[in-house]
Amino acid sequence: MTQANQKFILWVEDRPETVESQIYEAKNKGYQVEVVATPSTIKDVLEQEQVVAIIMDVMLYGVRNLKNIKIDVATTEDGLEAGWVLLERFIRAEDSPYAKIPILVLSARRLDDTQQVRLEELRLRGGGKIDYLEKAKRGWLKEFSDWLDKLDQQLREKNTHA
């Protein structure tokens, strides 16, 4: 369990070796980072920790169903859609206790039109901010670092007004 003054990021990633330096950077900036890949572990961490942000890879290969978090019917396309379904039906579901947690969606792919609509629909639900970052895009490492800095600023402002 994290201390009240710790900044805890839940990082949902099935291949953490692809973002190893970014995980290190987040830790270097004072964040405690827990990297998980399975829906049940995501649920456990959200229930046990004071998560200040979620970084989510939307393609979670091998996640074929979400029954262990009580989503009985979900098309995950062998993991290609698992992150989107987790966002839509669990993290940003209408009655979700996690709806105010800021999210950074990471993907190796550029958003297609359907995914762009999904992202906009998630943003319209309200709650915490949702940003998107394409992993392989030129300049994404700086954008990631900037996102962490903005998150840190938001957390400082929140603590000042608390």
In short:
By secondary structure, the chain is an alpha/beta fold. 39% of the residues lie in helices and 18% in strands.
Overall strand count: 5
Order of helices and strands: EHEHEHEHEH
N-to-C span: 22 Å
Low-confidence stretches: none
Corresponding CATH superfamily: Response regulator
Which fold does the CATH topology refer to?
Rossmann fold
User: How many domains in all?
Assistant: 1
CATH architecture: 3-Layer(aba) Sandwich
Q: Write down the overall mean pLDDT.
A: 84
Helix content: 25-40%
Strand content: 15-25%
For the record, what CATH class applies?
Answer: Alpha Beta
Number of helices: 5
State the secondary-structure class. Answer: alpha/beta
Q: How would you sum up the global shape?
A: globular
Largest sheet: 5 strands, parallel
CA radius of gyration = 15 Å
Spatial strand sequence of the major β-sheet:
2-1-3-4-5
Describe the structure.
The two termini are 22 Å apart. This protein has helices at residues 20-28, 39-48, 82-91, 113-124, 140-161, and strands at 7-12, 31-36, 51-57, 103-107, 130-134. It is globular. Helix 1 (20-28) links the parallel strand 1 (7-12) and strand 2. It has five helices and five strands, in the order E-H-E-H-E-H-E-H-E-H. It has one domain (7-161): Response regulator (Rossmann fold, 3-Layer(aba) Sandwich). 39% of the residues lie in helices and 18% in strands. Strands 2-1-3-4-5 form a five-stranded parallel beta sheet, sandwiched between helices. By secondary structure, it is an alpha/beta fold.
